[in-house]
Amino acid sequence: MAIAAGSTTRLWALVAKEFWRKTRRRLRAGPIYRWRYSGRTPERVLIAPPDLRLADPQIALEIYYGRYPLSGHLVETGGKSPFQIAVPNPGWQKTLHGFRWLRHMRAAGTELAAANARALVSDWIAMHGNHISGVAWEPGTTAKRVIAWLQHSSVVLQGAEFPFYRAFLKSLAMQIRYLRAMAREMPNGKDRLRARIALAFAALSLPAPASALRGATRNLAEELDRQILPDGGHISRNPMTVLEILADLLPLRQTYANQAETPPAALMGAIDRMLPALRFFRHQDGSLARFNGMGATIHDRIATILRHDDTAGAPVLHAPHSGYERLSMGGVTVIADTGPPPPVDVSNAAHAGCLAFELSSGRQHYIVNAGVDTYGAAEFRPLARATAAHSTATINDTSSARFSHSLRVNDLLGTPLVGGPQQVPCKRTDQQGSQGFLARHDGYVARFGLLHERELKLSANGNVLAGRDRFQRPGGAAIRNNGRDFVTVRFHIHPDIGLLQDEHDRLLLTADQADTWVFTCAEVAPEVEESIYFAGLGGPRRSRQIVLAFKASEVSEVHWQLTRTVIAGHPEKS
């Protein structure tokens, strides 16, 4: 079905803007502008900012032997420099040129690792330092590289002779000038914010006039105010983005302090909001809820970041600006998507998962969304982003939002999410002894004339999650039996959960040394179907889903319930 006129207009306006932006970027990377990136070479690095990302000395050893495990892919170089090899994987290429893997050399702490780091930086300078083109000079990748070179300058420069020392600083200065020129041309989103963070790091870490630091600080503050929402979420609505940005902002805050400079209020405020937001998205096992681009969680990364959260209280339950709700009691956590899609220009990883939820009990996940395979094949991403991959309702096997499939659009913007819900009203229904919310979205109104309303209520010390899904026409008229009212409500089960049917035809969700939950529905007999869980640490896994299938003209409202009948370690019902 055609995209609504308003969405079409916005989309093509973005295409035109991005085309012009890329044209200007090519001009700025060309020989006419290149002289602007030359200039005075800094004499030294004043300070090496800290790096909070996890480091593994074993990876440094792998790299020494020519094996590069980057972005989920292992590439063996056979004795060649990795910068000489044409690897068809874009993620691997971006990670290579981003140089974050230098942290593994620092963690190794050996002269051999330092010499290898220096040799690889020297290779990059020789092969790419004066050729501003390709993935190596994409502004987002350049921002990562500038931060990494500054953070790990101590290991790169350890034992360096003067010619390399000068070449390193000269290249770093050139990249900073290039990034300063390109930052204003970058599209909205985390890469532009990271560019501003990189420039602030540079102004603090290298000898620079006070005006340079003031300008970098001002631009950073403006970008933080633009991208970080009042509740601490990011405008992309992706929980992973909150984690990634915090991993840069926290060291930047420390660098301001180490240099006896006052950090901008916007930086302090953003961190103070984002740390609770990160805890909002976290289940009790430490993993983040799988919404809007979130894949597998590396738990230690989150723990490292949250060590800097001084509040240490219970996570907030309501994130209205990000569009999420949280229910939590008795060791049970429910996290739900109750917001419209993010703006089109930052929706390249967004999902059509409105009103989807996840449920965990203790450290075990029971109801999940499929999530994304972060390092997997790109052709599977549309499946993971579709409404059917989420624990919510679909109508006529159609997603509640659509993805652009135009090659002209995709070449410039990727695959933005368009034409999704416009209005998603939500209100909390908390009472004594229970937590809940009632939300509704209009993502199916334009095509099928139906609203989807969902109410969730967690009560009985977390032992009962009661749900209600209701379908109605905007004016309240009867739903037509026209063959366009087929509803499927899905509950995706985590792969570690066993799904059994007891003698009363109830569905039991079980796991070793974990709680047992029972699923029931009053109006529709639940069915069990195959599913796939994309967000496994080892890649996609087969799983199952509970399905309620019916015609909205015959059953406009279903009531279902998940009841915890056995708590791990307590054989009797709680």
Automatic annotation (TrEMBL):
InterPro entries assigned to the protein according to its UniProt record, in alphabetical order: Chondroitin_lyas, Hepar_II_III_C
PANTHER family the record matches: HEPARIN-SULFATE LYASE (PTHR39210:SF1)
Presence of keyword Lyase: yes
Entry GO CC: periplasmic space
Annotated compartments: Periplasm
Domain Heparinase II/III-like C-terminal: residue ranges: 313-561
UniProt protein name: Putative heparinase superfamily protein
Superkingdom of source: Bacteria
Source organism per UniProt: Mesorhizobium tianshanense
Statement: the UniProt record of this protein carries the keyword ATP-binding: no
Record keywords, A-Z: Lyase, Periplasm, Signal
Gene Ontology MF, one: lyase activity
